[in-house]
Amino acid sequence: MLDRRALLLALLLCAGTALAADPLTYGAKAQQLISKGDFVQALDELKAATSRFPYDQELKHQLAFTYTELAKRDLQSGRYAQAAENFRQAHELIPESKELALMRGIALYLNKDYVAARDELLQSGEGSESLVYLGKISYDTGDLPGALDFWRRAKELDPANKVLAGLIEKAERELPVESRMDKGYSSMFDLSFDAELPPGLSAEVLDALESAYNTVGADLGVFPTARIPVLLYTKKDYRSVTAGPDWSGGLYDGKIRLPVGGLTELTPQLRAIIFHEFTHVLVAELTHGNIPTWFNEGLAEIEGRKLFAPKLPQLDAAQEKHLLPLADLSGGFSGMGGGKAWMAYQQSFSMTSFMVQRYGWYSVQEILKYLGQRADMNTAVSKALADYALDLNGVMREWRESLPAAGTGGGSQ
Questions:
Q1: What is the pLDDT of residue 40?
Q2: At 185, phi and psi to the nearest 5?
Q3: What number does CATH give the domain 24-125?
Q4: Average of per-residue pLDDT values in the chain
Q5: pLDDT tens across 83-110, in order?
Q6: Domain extent listing, the chain
Q7: Is the pLDDT of residue 320 over 70?
Q8: Beta-bridge partner residues of 189
């Protein structure tokens, strides 16, 4: 009897081992995990399975699909380097897939790894989307004619694409101005400037940019590795290129654009604008554009006003009824008239500087980190200020309570 039981147990164990070794079983288990959204565990299962059955095409395609889904999640969360790596793993499993080459190229572009992105996009074929991103790489690296060539070819394939039409129109507006510009360089910046500007001004601007790189980088906790394009315009060219409001003193739209016509040397006000616009560079790097305008502009005002503080009346409790709602401050300011724009910037500065003073730069860095992971502002604040048990409404309440009584503030803020 004992021998028969031992034999039965041995048979069961062998059957279980055979079942576990079956690629269909691995695939089914992985599929269950995928259907539950547990891609990380599914990845472990499928990697183990493909190592045992390296020629099973179904397992290979399941593994590639899992890498792709993880990469898409990374893209949504702003983890561009990790997304590119997961797309690479998927593409190695299905090397004939042009779609995977395209997706990896896009992830590399978003991570500002332009050389690798270009190589990957060129492998993905002559589709409209790959041409759009090849154009973006050319544009971001200062090759406007190259960008226009790619975008015009993309437009032939996708003539109804309004976004593409906007890119072409913008580049065509900039090309006549930028084609006659001189060039200058420093360790992290590529400078283009109007040949009519005083020759010493460009060198002073580069020095200010390098100073901003170190100072603002220390406050926000990030030091970009990709080179940053900066353009100095005459005031007339600045208006024609940017179509910005009359009160605009600078712009960051992927490139720092500054109107400096008429200046012969770097003034404290221009230096402050450089620090202001460079702050937008870092905020974009950290949040990928997922940030309310008031917080973005508030941080930029903090950095700029360290160098040049305008003579502005301080906000006080008596002005509370005139304060702009957060909804108005969360969108762009460029469409505002001068008076409303002044209040928008002053209020943004007041709210954001209060947050820095009350909760510290580390908490601000944490808010930016969560925004970069696609959290909304309230969630980002709640997570970053968990030790204070505060959400965004709580922060705004504390800020309002901090405003001085009417007539006691005075001066500039």
A1: 76
A2: -140, 150
A3: 1.25.40.10
A4: 86
A5: 999 999 999 999 999 999 999 999 999 9
A6: 24-125, 128-175, 180-276, 288-413
A7: no
A8: 228
Q: Are 75 and 52 in contact (CB under 8 A)?
A: no
Residue 386 corresponds to which tokens in the numbers above?
A: 């968990």
pLDDT above 90 as % of the chain: 61
Burial 78-103 (b: 16+ CB within 10 A, else e): bbbebbbbbbbbbbebbeebebbbbb
Which single residue is written with the structure tokens 């709640």?
382
| Fold of the 180-276 domain | Glutaredoxin (3.40.30)
Amino acid found at 334? S
Comparing CA positions, the residue from 43, 47, 52 lying closest to residue 20 is 52
Supply 308's token pair: 């040049």
Q: Residue for token digits 């976004």?
A: 163
Helix H, strand E, coil C: the string for the chain is CHHHHHHHHHHHHHHHHHHHCCHHHHHHHHHHHHHCCCHHHHHHHHHHHHHHCCCCHHHHHHHHHHHHHHHHHHHHCCCHHHHHHHHHHHHHHCCCCHHHHHHHHHHHHHCCCHHHHHHHHHHCCCCHHHHHHHHHHHHHCCCHHHHHHHHHHHHHHCCCCHHHHHHHHHHHHHHHHHCCEEEEECCCEEEEEECCCCHHHHHHHHHHHHHHHHHHHHHHCCCCCCCEEEEEECHHHHHHHHCCCCCCCCEECCCEEEECCCCCCCCHHHHHHHHHHHHHHHHHHHHCCCCCHHHHHHHHHHHHHCCCCCCCCCCCHHHHHHCCCHHHHHCCCCCCCHHHHHHHHHHHHHHHHHHHHHHCHHHHHHHHHHHHCCCCHHHHHHHHCHHHCCCHHHHHHHHHHHCCCCCCCCCCC
Under a CB-based contact definition with an 8 Å cutoff, are residues 132 and 164 in contact?
A: yes
Q: Which residue has tokens 């997570």?
A: 383
- The label of the residue with tokens 């059957």 reads 15
| pLDDT bracket for residue 381 (50, 70, 90) | very high
| Dihedral of alpha carbons 113, 119, 122, 123, sign | negative
Structure tokens at 372: 């970069």
Condensed to tens digits (0 to 9), the pLDDT of residues 328-352 reads 899 888 777 767 888 889 999 999 9
Q: Which residues contact 241 (CB under 8 A, 6 or more apart)?
A: 173, 174, 177, 233, 257
